[in-house]
Design brief:
Elements: H1 3-17, H2 21-43, H3 46-62, H4 73-106, H5 113-131, H6 135-146, H7 151-158, H8 162-182, H9 189-193
Length: 196
């Protein structure tokens, strides 16, 4: 890295620490594609890679006051990306193991009328959970999980920042999981909510 690039990066981090959304946008625009490419190479999933991009830049924003002393923002982003990718791989492996275990234990028969009734009851519970969300969270959830729009597409449609969309989605998912757990539903949460 040249001394000019290092100076420019230090300036951006200093502005970011002072809550500059402009500096955040410049950093996001500069490094977003690089972070996405690294994530998608390892995860083989554009949707999960896009979510990791959002998570990483959300972390950048929340830790902005602590980053003024780092020597290379690119190196910091690479390390954080690597950690997020490893966590995503572990989480995916854990989810598939839990899913397979549940399917084995319950011996799901798609033609079984009881199974269809139970699945419909779970879907109704999920609909109740969604209905209890604040309107903005409901809208973000439905656009993301039912219409499969990316956070950036939702942001454009609702005139919000992708960061705000990500926050709404995280809060909606937490509220839905809590509602389902309170109603005795644990093992089907992954099947019904899914992972964007």
């Amino acid at each position: 890295m040249s001394s000019y690039q290092q100076y420019e990066e230090s300036t951006l981090l200093a502005l970011l620490a002072e809550d500059s959304e402009y500096a955040f946008q410049l950093i996001f625009d500069r490094y977003r594609n690089h972070v996405y490419k690294v994530a998608v190479v390892y995860l083989k999933s554009p949707a999960i890679a896009e979510e990791i991009v959002q998570d990483i830049f959300l972390k950048l924003w929340f830790q902005r006051k602590e980053l003024t002393g780092i020597h290379s923002l690119e190196a910091w982003l690479y390390t954080v990306t690597k950690n997020f990718v490893l966590n995503a791989i572990k989480k995916t492996a854990h989810e598939w193991t839990a899913r397979e275990r549940w399917l084995k234990e319950t011996q799901v028969d798609e033609g079984n009328a009881d199974e269809k009734v139970i699945t419909e009851q779970y879907r109704q519970l999920l609909a109740e959970a969604i209905a209890q969300l604040p309107k903005q969270q409901q809208l973000v959830y439905k656009l993301g999980k039912e219409q499969y729009l990316s956070y950036e597409e939702i942001a454009q449609r609702l005139s919000l920042s992708p960061l705000t969309v990500k926050t709404h989605m995280a809060r909606a998912l937490d509220a839905i999981r809590t509602f389902l757990r309170q109603n005795g539903v644990v093992f089907v949460i992954l099947l019904l909510i899914g992972k964007k």
